[in-house]
């Protein structure tokens, strides 16, 4: 067991996963979470007697990190697959199946694209130009809208790529970085002149992956943080809630953290610190001793959104939905353009059969509202937001009568925006942090905001800290040995 003490600031999934690795590496670890609850964007609560996620609800299975974590916790057998992943898009006034073969909205199969009727005849006619257009220069980084629009036309951007990225980032395609928001397609596009060809390349490479694309836990993905925290404690660590870290300063080769309200501050010393909080609080903590990282972090913007969860009697639906849900492009959902404001609908009871099995008489639906720059949409009361969701379901799915229960969860500043230049910005943050012994950063602000990417960033942070502490302890022992001789 090491004698070192590491503090992890932030008890979201990144902070907890990092703490778990540190504790299992023999380090005494303390997690400091500012809010009363651990888990950050992973949270579950009951609606109409069913446990339903308020934030993230599933993990991608194409990346191993989150699944490995669940399996490592001995819960691999609990993983649940969706009943269906077939989803639709509300385009040109009707719900239409997502075209087969698309990669984050970039089509790889022109016949499937035509059959989906998501695009207008003119929009569809524009797409094959991609096959003959000369290479599109992109220099360092460009926006998703600029690159995809130049290759495939504006309708592909507006009606396919934007709604999918809207689901992940709640972001704007004019601002989001092609390199970091669509990393697989952007990497393939370095070796394919045609973007359709790049999407075909990505599809070809992933066709070996079989099985469901998503997984969750039976009590909701929001149960994962509790499992990780229990493991941290079992390995000798401490997890504190209601412990907001207000200041971080270098001290005697380690760090001093100031916690709690200004009238009753508490100080805690650590040999190493992992900062696993969103970019704005990370910037505040790093301002004094790592100003270069703080400046860069302060430039990362965040989108706010809300999830309205509704539990309906099954009879409220004229027919039970078949797919897992549908997306509403900004061009259709923007209230300023006559839309209702809902950008995505998930039929949770259809997507997750274990939820339906628990109460076959209920259909639980999650509606997502709000994009970057649409703050006005969220300035409405909870009742008004719930009414927006009810109106959306009535208009698009013919749902009648009121839901038996409604829950509104607001995620203010919930999603980092990977805007043009994000990768370079993150590289500058990491370079500044790398100069500081015993310091690492992790979480959604950096190299991917999905849970698997957050767990991967936690692993990288914990590895850095463990290496650093071991080499320092080795040096201390060496020095003691020399003194003893
Ligand atoms: C509505 C929604 C749905 C999502 N759906 C999915 C999904 O289905 N699948 C998926 O993979 N991803 C999804 N995501 C993204 C993913 O959930 C998040 O990116 C990820 O959980 C972020 O984890 P984190 O640990 O980096 O940060 P957070 O979850 O933000 O955790 C950071 C923690 O730090 C705490 N904190 C902040 N400042 C301080 C401070 N000064 N001192 C102490 N503590 C502090 C916060 O209270 C918080 O608990 C979704 C996100 C949202 C908002």
Automatic annotation (TrEMBL):
Pfam family, one: Amino_oxidase
Cofactor: FAD
GO cellular component terms attached to this protein's record: cytoplasm
Signal peptide start and end residues: none
Leading EC class: oxidoreductase
Record family assignment: Belongs to the protoporphyrinogen/coproporphyrinogen oxidase family. Coproporphyrinogen III oxidase subfamily.
Protein name: Coproporphyrinogen III oxidase
Gene: hemG
């Amino acid at each position: 067991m090491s004698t070192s003490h590491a503090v992890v600031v932030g008890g979201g999934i990144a902070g907890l996963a990092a703490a778990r690795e540190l504790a299992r590496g023999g380090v005494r670890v303390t997690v400091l979470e500012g809010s009363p609850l651990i888990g950050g964007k992973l949270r579950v609560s009951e609606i109409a007697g069913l446990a339903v996620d308020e934030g993230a609800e599933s993990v991608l299975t194409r990346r191993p990190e989150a699944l490995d974590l669940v399996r490592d916790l001995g819960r691999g057998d609990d993983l649940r697959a969706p009943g269906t992943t077939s989803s639709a898009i509300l385009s040109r006034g009707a719900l239409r199946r997502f075209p087969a073969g698309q990669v984050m909205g970039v089509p790889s199969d022109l016949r499937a694209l035509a059959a989906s009727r998501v695009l207008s005849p003119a929009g569809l006619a524009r797409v094959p130009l991609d096959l003959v257009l000369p290479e599109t220069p992109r220099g360092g980084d460009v926006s998703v809208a600029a690159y995809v629009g130049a290759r495939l036309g504006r309708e592909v951007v507006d009606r396919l790529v934007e709604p999918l990225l809207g689901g992940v980032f709640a972001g704007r395609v004019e601002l989001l970085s092609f390199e970091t928001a669509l990393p697989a397609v952007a990497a393939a596009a370095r070796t394919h002149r045609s973007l359709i060809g790049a999407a075909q390349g990505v599809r070809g490479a992933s066709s070996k992956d079989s099985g469901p694309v998503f997984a969750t836990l039976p009590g909701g993905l929001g149960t994962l943080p509790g499992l990780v925290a229990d493991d941290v404690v079992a390995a000798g660590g401490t997890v504190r809630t209601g412990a907001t870290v207000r200041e971080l300063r270098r001290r005697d080769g380690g760090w001093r953290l100031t916690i709690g309200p200004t009238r009753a501050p508490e100080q805690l010393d650590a040999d190493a610190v992992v900062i696993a909080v969103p970019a704005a609080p990370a910037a505040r903590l790093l301002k004094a001793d790592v100003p270069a990282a703080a400046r860069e972090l302060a430039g990362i913007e965040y989108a706010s959104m809300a999830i309205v969860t509704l539990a309906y009697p099954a009879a409220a639906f004229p027919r039970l939905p078949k797919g897992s849900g549908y997306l509403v492009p900004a061009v259709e959902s923007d209230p300023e353009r006559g839309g209702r404001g809902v950008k995505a609908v998930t039929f949770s009871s259809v997507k997750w059969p274990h939820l339906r099995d628990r109460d076959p008489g209920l259909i639980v639906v999650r509606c997502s509202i709000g994009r970057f720059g649409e703050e006005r949409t969220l300035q409405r009361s909870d009742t008004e937001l719930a009414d927006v969701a009810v109106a959306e379901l009535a208009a698009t799915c013919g749902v009648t009568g009121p839901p038996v229960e409604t829950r509104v969860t607001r995620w203010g500043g919930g999603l980092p925006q990977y805007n043009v230049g994000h990768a370079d910005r993150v590289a500058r943050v990491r370079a500044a942090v790398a100069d500081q012994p015993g310091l690492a950063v992790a979480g959604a602000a950096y190299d991917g905001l999905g849970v698997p990417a957050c767990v991967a960033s936690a692993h990288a942070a914990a590895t850095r800290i463990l290496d650093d502490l071991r080499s320092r302890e080795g040096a201390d022992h060496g020095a003691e040995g020399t003194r003893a001789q």
